[in-house]
Amino acid sequence: MAIAEETKAELAEIAARYPRARSGIVPMLHLVQSVEGYVSQEGMQAVAGVLDLTVAEVAAVATFYTMFKMRPVGEHHVAVCVNPQCGILGGDRIWEVLSDELGVGNGGTTDDGKVTLERIECQAACTNAPVMTADWEFLDNMTVERARDIVSRLRAGDPVQSTRGPLIRSFKATARSLSGIEDDGLADQGGNNATDEMLAGLRVAQARGMVSPDGRSSNRSDSESGRVK
Amino acid sequence: MSDPSAAPVTEVVATVTGTIDDVTVTVPKGTLIIRAAERIGIDIPRFCDHPLLDPVAACRMCLVDIEGMPKPQPSCAVPLGDGMEVRTGQTSAVADKAQQGVMEFLLINHPLDCPICDKGGECPLQNQEMSNGRGESRYSGAKRTFAKPISVSEQILLDRERCISCTRCVRFADEIAGDPLIDLKERGAEQQIAIGDQPFDSYFSGNTIQICPVGALTSADYRFRARPFDLVSVPTVCEHCAAGCAMRTDVRRERVQRRLAGDDALVNEEWNCDKGRFAFKYLDSRRICVPLIRENGEFREASWPEAIEFAAEGLAPVRGRVAVVPGGRLTREDAYAYAKFARISLATDDIDFRTRPASSEEADFLAARVAGTGLGVTYADLDAAPIVLLVGLEPEDESPILFLRLRQAVRRHGTRVAAVAPWATPGLLKTSATLLPTVPGAEAGVLDALATGGPDLDDAATTISAALREPGAVVLVGERLATSKGGWSAAHALAEQTGARLAWVPRRAGERGALDAGALRGLLPGGASLTDPVAAQAVAEVWGVSRGQIPARTGRTLSEAVAAALSGESQAPMAAVVGGMDVDDLASPAAFRGFLRQARFVVSLETRHSAVTAEADVVLPVAVDTERSGSYVNWEGRVRHFPKASRQEYSLTDGQVLGLISEKLGSPIGNGDPASLAAELESIPGVTAGRPAPSPVAPDPDPAAPAQGQAVLSTWRELLDEGSMQQEAHFLAGTRRQSVARMSAATAAGIGAVSGGEVEVSTDRGEVALPLVLTEMPDGVVWIPANSVGSEVYRELGTVEGRLVRIAAGGPR
Amino acid sequence: MTMTTPLTPVLTAHWDEPDSYTLDGYQRHGGYTSLSQAFALGPGPVIDLIKESGLRGRGGAGFPTGMKWSFVPQGDGKPHYLVVNGDESEPGACKDIPLMLANPHALIEGMIIASFAIRANHAFVYIRGEVPHVIRRMRAAVKQAHDAGYLGRDILGSGFDLDIVVTCGAGAYICGEETALLSSLEGFRGHPRLKPPFPAVAGLYSCPTVVNNVETISSVPYIVRNGASWYNFFGTVKSPGIKLFAVSGHVNNPGIFEAPLGITMRELLDYAGGIRDGHELKFWLPGGSSVPVLTPEHLDVPMTYEDMVAAGTMLGTATAMVFDETVSVVRAIAGWLAFYKHESCGKCTPCREGTWWMHQLAQDFVAGKATEEDLTKLEDICSNILGRSFCALGDAAATPYPGALKYFRGEFEQGTHTPAAGLFDEQASIVFEEVRAK
Ligand SMILES: Cc1cc2nc3c(=O)[nH]c(=O)nc-3n(C[C@H](O)[C@H](O)[C@H](O)COP(=O)(O)O)c2cc1C
Ligand code: SF4
Ligand code: FES
């Protein structure tokens, strides 16, 4: 698809945020994905045009990153972490089940074009393993049943709430958010999003009366915290 | 033209001393260990390292053990330090294991197709494996494979599975050529070389084949053609342009199989352009092998003695009335033979090597400022120059290695480039040049303004004008300035007033040598004026003739000679001796054809049939570049000697042919053998005193302004075009730039032309129609390539740069 | 038995408040009050203060932060940059992402102080692309801080200007390596660059640049607010201060635990509710997959940079992964090797080709198809990568196997005849009931 002038203007706007325009290339490619659903040749040409680069140079960058897809992605991108922590704790099993039931392999898209399934590496959420993502929003503490449910809701167009983030929208919508072209207004969605795991230490401390040692940051009494040295 | 103030200041270079494999070595501070090792004969294996590219230390082949460092270090990226103790694989088990390990890694995915790989026999990877390899592979897995091969351009193929990701090709394209059209793609073990949406059509792409340390990049026309051990390699010099590249010509059974860039740090470093590398098929094609004599309008083959006799008989009666047209592609020696032959065998000074648009103004200034001046501005001077001003010269198209060296000067030494030209060409952009937008023909005015300085100049021009006054500033003038009236006078005046050094950059390889050899009217070999009695006496002595046997009066330039003949002037030339040339290279091909047609006798020294042989009475086949030895003089004034590359014995050089004719004419010039010609030419005393500059020529007082539907023509030859020496280089032809017309948006709007639509450029003679690319340039100017597909300006339009042409919007595309 | 080390929630102290991530939530507990303190001190004394606090880089290498800042040349006339490394992609690492989610303003306040100290007027947060919610929250926080006058021109009348750009990656572990991050941030492939020159001298756009981890910079405001001696009171002499630890895997209550350095894994396991019921600890990694594995015998080693090295491993990111007896070491190692192969940037030969080869051999071990010779071959391949690769990713890739071989050689030997799946019930490792019930 030819890239609209409007998109080109947005690409230029992103580039202009950096001391050197080329620094904007990754967010710009996210923006390309948000309109094209992947990094199309035309999209790379548009980026090359804004940054005065060759398409070879843009493709060199685009193909380096796994989030940039060289083929169209379905409406939703669903990913299962199979890095050992998640994989062993259940991610491998979730992957098998989803891949089996959707009838697609790694990077494959369902016939209805709704879901592209992918195996991914560690998502920095190991305390919440096994984890998945839908359109890159967190889905923590997954089970096979929850995974199945999420995928069928996505395919049916029913709402799915990220465990640490907003309602799932679409692959393109997330790509637009990532580009940072505008504030998507979703920073507050889903509340403060602190999972039990994020609060595990704090709760133990509270339960056992271990006070915050930061004298001025709380109105609790001064710490008597032990000194290990 | 030497200027003592521009001599480089010798700096005291700080040195460091360390040891490599226990050998002490002292090198300038900052020298990389790998280079320091080379100095003492220790060869550290390497793949990604290239002395002319920035270090990346990616392949890890060159790891060495440095005392006190916890892990092996890449010697291609670490400078030798004072007191550093370095051990290579020769003396350190750690370094040896590191290198063995890297070799093993490189080979696990490398195909074992050496027997069918072009690089086999000259492959750094193969050599390293043979000399140091493990012999048996510990790898049992499946190798990475790719669909093979892919074309990165019509000329260059890529076998991805052979690639070792050294990125030499990518770095060359980016850093040296400035054409980042190939780059890496994917990552990790999937990483590969790729192009984007356009092929790797860089004028310099062939260098990547040469520096690829494996057989991943190969040339379409050399692929599977020969094995290195079948080839005889001869160090040669490129005949295509005046850059003067050192080359290597690889010959098998007397035929050139391929050509590579030679290594000459002073000139082309290790690079050359694709024309020099790939355009050599013309050497074998459609050669005339036997002398031809015209009888009753038809050619018949003749023996050499018969043909020589015939030529001499035809020339004898017209002595003194012969135009001699050597052409610009001769060796210095052969050009000298023409110069001497014209003066003493034909008793004429009507000689002009400039078979291209030229002027007497140019001839006079070349005689005064360039001929016989020896080495002037050099490539190295560009590095030291605060500014290089280009006038009538588009280096990337017209002198590609000059372009590369300028780019290096800009990138590495901060040289500033400025151009008096109509538009910012790709080459100018790649040298970050400042453009002084100029309508062709108006060069003199711009140069005058720069010379004067003064408040009328805009900021850019003021800066340039000031920079030209700094020591080391350089003005480079191309051959196209000849068609801009007053241009040479203004360039000369600019140099005089600013102290900038001036150099002339002709396009053809033989022009500077021909100038030095006296193959131009009014000019003696060595650079003195024909009318200088002392110099003429000295030449007469070398030639063993009396002073009176050398014409005393300045003769005609080529166009004067043709005009005189066509207008039937008394004493006008009535015969011609013509060396290798293309009639369509002239500003007015029709006039020259007319002259030949009416001439009483025409001798053609040629290799192939042409518009000249069509009119010739006798055709004498001569040697092509590979079959002769001799020298070219590059634009710097550097003499570039080269030997015969092919041992073909049947062909004679131009000099030898002229020698034979001269004997028959009874005024012998010697046997015309290149070595004796060179010795004789060099024995002629050069110009000692500077010659006075000719009186300045004023620019056209009021150049014709384009009316509605007209524009001033801007044109030059692109590097890769329809040039006759590129014939049959089909793959190379596939990498040419697309022919387009360029004009400003306002000019286009004036004729209703749209971007991408067709524009017709015409004269009374003919028409050229090309797609339009809107280009920022002065209004009322149209640019089209001079000799490209669908745009042969001289032949089809019969006009030259700076003249008015008609423009119109063409049919829809 | 010695007294257990108490947890010390500082960065995490208010994560349970619904607005912990907002400007209000942050300011309620003293947020942004250290700015005026820092401005009053001046750049040099701020660097001295951080030096004195003993804060060490939390990105894994533990380089003293104050010292890093002091390497930035002053008065060189070039722009300086602060780049915060929020790429957190190391397998097992899961602290910076939650930190930015729950307490982004601490990072921003820290960035203002750090930028002031190194005289940078432009700072970047580079966050891995796969966490859009963290990125949008970080961006929202920057906007709030800007609107509140903490960013922009003449911050709080100090004359100091700072702009922060929150930017993102797009899926490449290597972009956490600082020079690769800079390549990525400049818009090139995320290939690491030659050092020297180090970023402090020629980093972003060849200008002096400090690259610090999210947690490192987030700790700065608390240090400025409470003093260097407050901070270095915690921890040990060489590893002072407070750190985010995480425990993931086969424990009853996995999560994040903020504690002084020097706490032991035994204590952390206790806080995390112990190994899941009915199982026992088999092996654990103190901080990411790039550090050698440890066994139950190491539970009492203090979690400090030095003690972990002495125990043959590294503290790394201090985000521990814990595996019980149901897990095949061979399978875990093979998984990490697959990761490194996937993430190798391709620049240098040992890492590009070595990870490809190791992965193939590892799969043979998992499949029970390896040979006796492969045991040593794989070890030798590791030795040919370790210290030979361009950057530490190669070193990291060469780390898991030799470490695991030391304690679990037998399991690898079994890989020469029996598939891992035949030795271990993979279903037994799964933590959710439904499948185990099947
Ligand atoms: C392969 C690789 C990945 C890394 N990933 C990260 C990362 O995600 N976050 C991080 O802060 N440091 C990472 N590092 C370490 C950084 O190179 C750097 O040391 C660190 O950002 C410096 O910050 P600090 O001094 O505050 O620790 C990584 C290093 C390597 C070799
Ligand atoms: S194609 Fe040749 S020169 Fe280019 S990266 Fe591969 S091995 Fe190096
Ligand atoms: S030659 Fe030094 S790393 Fe390649």
Give the gist of this structure.
The complex is a heterotrimer of chains A (229), B (813) and C (438). By secondary structure, chain B is α/β, with parallel strands linked by helices. With 438 residues, chain C is an alpha/beta fold.
Give a structural overview:
The complex is a heterotrimer of chains A (229), B (813) and C (438). Chain A has helices at 5-15, 25-36, 41-51, 55-62, 84-102, 144-156, 171-179, 196-207, and strands at 76-81, 115-120, 132-134, 137-139. The model of chain A is unreliable at 215-229 (pLDDT under 50). In chain A, strands 2-1-3-4 form a 4-stranded mixed beta sheet, with helices on both faces. Chain A has 229 residues and is of the alpha+beta class. Chain A has 3 domains: 5-62, Arc Repressor Mutant, subunit A (Orthogonal Bundle), CATH 1.10.10; 76-169, Glutaredoxin; 196-225, no CATH class. The longest helix of chain B is centred in the first third of the chain and has 16 residues, at 93-108. Chain C is α/β, with parallel strands linked by helices and 438 residues long. In chain C, 44% of the residues lie in helices and 11% in strands. Chain C has helices at residues 23-28, 34-41, 43-53, 65-70, 96-102, 104-118, 132-147, 178-185, 199-202, 214-226, 228-232, 265-271, 305-310, 329-343, 349-367, 372-385, 392-397, 400-414, 420-423, 426-429, 433-437; strands spanning 81-86, 122-127, 163-168, 209-213, 242-249, 255-260, 281-285, 319-324. Chain C starts with 22 loop residues before the first helix and ends with a helix. At the A-C interface, helix 2, helix 5, helix 7 and helix 8 of A face helix 5, helix 7, strand 3, helix 10 and strand 5 of C. Residues 57-61, 63, 85, 87-90, 173-174, 176-178, 211-213, 216, 391-393, 396 of chain C line the site of flavin mononucleotide.
The biggest chain-chain interface is:
A-C, 94 and 115 residues
Overall average residue pLDDT of chain B: 94
Number of strands of chain A: 4
* Count of folded domains of chain A: 3
Provide the structure class of chain A. Answer: alpha+beta
Given the structure, what is the number of helices of chain B?
Answer: 25
Largest sheet of chain A: 4 strands, mixed
Q: Class by helix and strand content of chain B? A: alpha/beta
- Net shape of chain A: globular
Bound molecules: flavin mononucleotide, iron/sulfur cluster, FE2/S2 (inorganic) cluster
Share of residues in strands of chain B:
15-25%
The proportion of strand residues of chain A reads 5-15%
Radius of gyration of chain B: 28 Å
Q: What is the rounded Rg of chain A? A: 21 Å
Whole-number mean pLDDT of chain A: 93
The quaternary structure here is heterotrimer
- Residue share in helices of chain B? 25-40%
Q: What fold name stands as the CATH topology of the largest domain in chain A?
A: Glutaredoxin
Unreliable residue stretches of chain A: 215-229
| SSE pattern of chain A | HHHHEHEEEHHH
